[in-house]
Design goal:
- The protein is α+β, with helices and mostly antiparallel strands and 272 residues long.
- The protein is built from 10 helices and 7 strands.
- Strands 1, 2, 3, 4, 5, 6 and 7 form a 7-stranded antiparallel beta sheet that branches.
- The longest helix is centred in the C-terminal third of the chain and has 16 residues.
Length: 272
Amino acid sequence: SQTRQDDFENFSDNAELCSLADEYFVQSVQGNFRGHNSSTFDPKLNASALLPASLEQNQKIIRLERIDWVPAADSSLNFDRLSAALKPRDEVVLSAFTNLFLGRSGERPAFVAFKAELKDDLQQADWLDRIIRRLGLLHHFPVKVNEVYSFALFEYLAADVFRSAGQRGITQPFAIATVLECQRNPAFFPVPKGAAHGFTVDLTEPAPLPATVREVLHVRLDYSHRHVIRFGQWPGPKPVPGLVPARIRHLTRLCETTGRADFGAGIVARVP
């Protein structure tokens, strides 16, 4: 919206655009403390990007978190122990794991997808590879030899987000991501104003699946042990997908889906 654009442009005297965007993300979007009023979910600033409070609350949501930092925070919670705790649903171990997230500062919005649109991918043995590519998680590619990234997959209901947000007086806890939340991710596209959802940039090669995965943001959610459904590891090296072809494919489908044939004209062939 023009209101949020004005808020961004008047935020700082920093004249360099990308640096200003980084500064705005840290101070205005994420904040440095719990309880920060993120501009993403402020109806006075970002009303046009907020999804209605009538969003279906029984929808299942998934979020992938990289957890390489966990053993440094608690040496007893290595990947093997976490994986072993999953099948018997060891609440002590899983709660110790999710409690580590409580200590993270700020109110960074969470990029998430709806489980129903990734159901087939989640049923495959290579589910982690598929999810990372289909959600456009370029920053999760281990590009070095012997580099191994560890992940946890969380699942919860939209109702859980509404309940948690309601305790803080937030009635519209879901939003469409704008360029102010993307943190210069080249595997990200905003959507035309008025679109009902954002869409992930599919990095699957040689050709992506025909369906486009919806992408939304929600306010920070404190995880419970009940939300943890899988652990997985992804070893490198993994070649980085071709970004320009992926962006061209995505823009084509984005224009078709939203009915805006002119959206993004002239910019997709370069990687920001």
